[in-house]
Amino acid sequence: MLLQDRVEVKKVVVWEAFDVTDPMTRAAANLYEKTLTPDERIPWMWIEQSVQERPKSKPRPGGWSRHLLLAAPEGKQDDPESLAGYVYGALLPGYGGYLCYVGVADWARRMGVGSRLYDQFFKVLRVDAGELGEALPFVIWESHRPDESATASDWDNWTARTRLFDRVGGLWIEGVDFLSPNFAFDDEEEAPPVPLQLFVKPMDLPESAFTSDRLREVVGGLHERVYQNEPGSRMFDGTLPPGCDPRLRAARTAGAKKSERVI
To answer: How far apart are CA 114 and CA 101, in angstroms?
Structure first.
């Protein structure tokens, strides 16, 4: 999409992908690889499998209900070059919502695409939970904060991302570095884990319900339900060491370097 086309975009449309052979789904695969580093992303074929199974799957107790949502300017939903962004995640019955990945094309930044994707994803999970007769207590997601020595551009991008999290109602779980598998390595035991920051949007629970104890349960549940890490494993115990005291703070406060953060 040409730069001058951006001013013509008046509405962004979001829809769910059901066909892995659709050129728009293939465009999402390309954008996925451009917006995520190898150590953060799962193989795209796993997401394709979810898309393939989606038409014949319904929310069920104990099972994941996965969704890949795509975004494009109205009238250009069939133009792969106009794919503005994607979001992928799932409802985990008995736990909450998990937003796995989100990405926005460079040309579509500052156009509200990210907010539209988050908002629509929240709505889709509410429908899933309703079909199961469950509440949706929260939606949680991870994001990779730059190292202290990263470039100013990297930190500017991170700051912009945390401001987006603010706009969509996300709160930062301060006090936790969530250790996740490094997908760039075949041997998980030898690979250095990737430390991620966690953000949560309270849905059917008020913010006040997320005490330190409740947040430890939420973080531990993410390890157990998504990564199959139990207490006693390297990543679980490294994420929740003794004395860990997580608390919710405004998402934008995570945008500052530790050396610049106001306590």
So the answer is: 11
How long is the chain? 263
Angle between helices 113-132 and 152-167 (to 10 degrees): 50
d(CA 22, CA 147): 37
CA distances in angstroms from 151 to 42, 146, 157, 162, listed in the order given:
26, 9, 10, 17
Question: 48-78 burial string, b = 16+ CB within 10 Å, else e?
Answer: bebbeebeeeebeeeebbbbbbbbbbeebee
Whether 105 and 45 have beta carbons less than 8 Å apart is answered as: no
State the pLDDT confidence band at 202, using cuts at 50, 70 and 90: very high
How many Cα atoms occupy the beta-carbon half-sphere of 178 within 13 Å?
28
Task: Indicate the fold that domain 1-135 takes in CATH.
Answer: Aminopeptidase (3.40.630)
pLDDT band at 38, cuts 50/70/90? Answer: confident
φ/ψ of 216, rounded to 5, equals -65, -40
Helices 44-53/23-35 angle, 10° precision: 150
CA-CA distance, 107 to 127, in Å (whole number)?
Answer: 31
CA angle centred on 153, ends 194 and 70, rounded to 5°: 65
Backbone phi and psi for residue 58, each to the nearest 5 degrees, phi listed first: -130, 155
155 membership: H or E segment, kind and range: helix 152-167
Q: What tokens were used for 19?
A: 């066909």
Q: Is the pLDDT of residue 261 over 60?
A: no
Q: pTM to 2 decimals?
A: 0.90
Q: In this predicted model, what pLDDT tens digit does every residue of 62-105 receive, in sequence order?
A: 678 999 999 999 999 999 999 999 999 999 999 999 999 999 99
Specify the 3-state DSSP secondary structure of 130. Answer: helix
